[in-house]
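[Q] Does anyone have a clean structure-token version of this?
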Amino acid sequence: MVPLTPIDEPSGPSSPASFLRKQRPQGLASPSSAVPSPTSSDYSSTGSSTPMDLRPKSSMDRLVQRARPKSLQKSGRPSSLFGSRRGLPNHEEDEATLTRTTSHPSSVHSQSDYLSSLAASQVLLHGDVQTASGMFRKRSQYLVLTDSHLIKFRTQTRASELFPTIPPSIGRASGIRHSRLSSSGSSHDLNTQNEGLQSIPLNQIVAIYRLDDGKPYFSIEIFHLDEDSFQESSTTLQLHDPRDHDLWLSSIRGTALNARLKDPMPFSQQLVEYTARVLEQDLDYDPHQFHMFRVVQRASRSGGGARSSSDDLTKLTSNICILAIGVFKLHLVPLPRNHKTLSSTSLTDLGGISYGLAALSAFTVAQDDDSFYLRFRMPLRSGISLSIASSYVNDIALSARRTADYLRPKWPEQPFTWNVPKVMDEDFLPIPPIDEDYEALNRTLSAYCAAYNLDASLIRYTVFADVEDGPAFCLEARADGRKYNVLELLAVLRSLRYNESFHTLSFAGVPLDELQRLRDPNGSEHVAWRIRFGEPLDQEEQSNFTLLVQEVRALALNSTSLRRLDFSHCLSPTSTSALRKGEDQGCGICEALFPMCVKQATNIDWVILTGIHLSETDLDYFYSAVIDRSCHFRAIETGHCGLSDRNLSGNPARMEPDWMLNLEHCSFLRKLNLSNLTRASSMEPLIPTRVLSKWRLEELYFSGTSLNKESFMAIAEYLLSSESFSLKILDLENCNLQGHHASELLRSSVEQYQGTREMRVTLSGNRLESGHDLFAEIIRHNQCPSQIIMQTIEYQDENSFRQLLEAITFNQTINYLDLSKLSLPSEADVSTCGLLGRLLTTNRTLLWLDISGEQTHLVASILGAGLYSALNGLKHNTTLQVLRIENQRLGLQGASMLASVIEENKSLREIHCEGNEISLQAFTVLVNSVERNTSLLYLPDMTSDRLWAQKKVSREVDSLQENSASGITPISSTKATVKRTLGKTMTGQRSAHNRMSSGTQPAFDVRDVVSSLSAQWDKEVARLRGYLARNYERTHHTSDGGPGALDFGRPATSSSLETAMRDFSLDQTPRAEVDRQLGHEVEEQDGRVQTDESGDEGDEGDSPLEMK
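[A] Here you go.
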């Protein structure tokens, strides 16, 4: 075949073209006068002088004569064994196909019109071809490309008769290689095969692509579809010259594109609904995110060069189908067989396939044909490749990429290979702004679950906003209680990448053992190759890591807002131990995070590794990060990590003093917890002053660690220096501290500090009574910080406690004081309580005070009854805001005094007074006082006191049962209990009561008393909450309601218990009513029931229903 050359025809009325134009009907457009042709030489001819009536009939007349229907008996054997495979099984469909007139009318006139329309089209390219009809029969044909059809003629002469611009054949020059065409028959071919031409409408072409079948020529495969009958056909062009191959390929593609633009082939409504049903069955249909395209799913060809029938058989596996893109997946939907089965086909019989777009690993588009390649890969599995072709490849690529970007909106680079022409990259549209919470986390997580075939409802997580380093993402346990599998963990971790809405990620308690043991050798598309805004990482090194290292490192590298990671108790000791003897792989988390911190590739500065066994490998990564000055760690929590003698907290260890020198290089350390340590006997301090001065600590804990004198002096010297000014918390609980040690530490903390130092010092559990005079003097002269905690201090001499109270009275720096659980030799005497009342009256600095006691089975630390009078000093206090006075056995008398304080004090905001044996009457008194107070914001519901009151009633019932069993009259015993319960408010009232039968149990009826007590308590709680809500609104200026807006439900204090007992009567109990119904007669008893005076005098404790 030689290069294509244009045809130069002579002009004038005698030219063949002019002669043919005269014979065509009017209205047919003239073909182009210059059309390139793959012939060996130009053809020219002179006109003919033969009279019109003697000339043979024109080519149009001959074609019209031959365009008559053929007998179906002659087509008993198909011309090709490889026709449309969709029509072969059904003979009725074959008949309908042969008689249908969708593209080629059967009548002579309609056939003539069709040929006339073909003749009117413009010829763009033509050439001699050879057609393989069947496996062994071949015949020469001539291929013509017009602006609307691709037409095959038997000979060039037949083509020249219809298109005068094509010269007639005058013989072929020897030695010239021509184009070859082999094709399978189509419905159009069957109708027009015997008429000398076969046509393919260009707007019905689905795909045109190169065919690499290993044969010694260049092939082009063309798939086209008649959607009216769902008949698909393929045509293969075989060319020996690569220039001819490229010319035909580009010409057919370009012309087909223009034909689709002029005469598009829209999808029928039935086919759209059919495809939508397929996606809906897969839970992937959304009308706003639904795209469908006609494509060819290509078959893999054999690589051998020999021609065999097996090459033709593989053609059957290439077929036209519908490619649909849903919300999360890409679907390949087979075409229905015909219109009859379009709506009746069972979706379970379709055999379509779908792939999650989140699992897409490669998308490659060919440069010069319609083919493209997709690759999908599930974790830990080999990839699945799809070879597809479509004339709509640009739209498919843009739609798939846009959907992938929508599913991962914050990813700057998608985790798949994107190899497309540059022109397509310019057509991308920006992703719309995210309108979902937490940067569309649910959308991305659902996409991964769909791609990995997971049930998204089993994955649970919680987001906490109002926490330190919030918002915080916390992965919860699986919904069904089982462990998360590998794919579920990968879906969660990969969904969190590039998510800038979280500052904390917590996987506490979620087992990650499977990720720590597995590697994925089948692909690396999800491996983080580079820092988000930095240099690339070593690709080969990243691929060899375990899945846990890869995913944790990706989280650290791909988020700039992430500050804290919590992996506490995520790995079991067996998973972090060596897999083989002598092998130490570490836990993986240290390997993933700490090298990135050294490179300053992440902003994470708080890592929680509690409960994870750290090996030697982990410690190497740990030390390299801790000693590096570029690592700005706020905290690394390593409690219960099996660190043996190198642990800092919470592990059995023996600390050598010299070991602390290794921490000198941690200059950015902010929090140090050295609690519960057992150190070796030494005269050296636990931490030298020069080491402490290297840090800018904010929190320092020695709780439970016995400190020697040298350690105290080192800490005091550190507190004197300006390097300690950033310290906010110093915890010295149970550190074997004495009074003179504590005074020295307090004085050192403020000596060089200008003004009041805001620091909390905990001195709980120490023996402060030794050297207490100096300690009290330091506090009296304001040489101490603003917050002091002194819990569980034991005083052998009450005078020492009086010194402390007097010192605090004159102190002007302490605003937070905790004196709870103090132990005195006995209850505080009158002078001690007077000093406490003076403190409450005089001190104008305290804002927070805790004087709670302690009541256990073995210990009772309370101040005693003198506390009642001391509370009277709060009436004159104008600064205290929070008072804690729990477990002090206030009872009714103390509650009444506290209620009077509430009515007069306007500075208190919170009062914590649970555990004080408060009865219902005492609680009512407190609630009534809150009604008159508009500044109090918190008073407890007294839940523990409520339980105490109910238990006391139950004990009285048990006592009643014992008295009944000992022979005492039940009615008399019951009245005695009622008298003790109601007090003097019920004295003197006489009523007639029915005698109950001997089998009646009083406990059955007293349950009503307990129930009534609970109901009345609920009413008081409701009143209390209403008053507190009113005060809150007033404090925050959200309401202007009057102070009496909530007083409608208030009961009278003296009659509140009568309300609780109003319906309780011995002659109207449930058991008595049953007795009446069964006919038992109850005799009336006259006179007053004698009361059990001895029982009244012996009950010294306050009854829960007592009225005084």
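[Q] Thanks! Anything notable?
[A] Residues 946-1098 form one domain.
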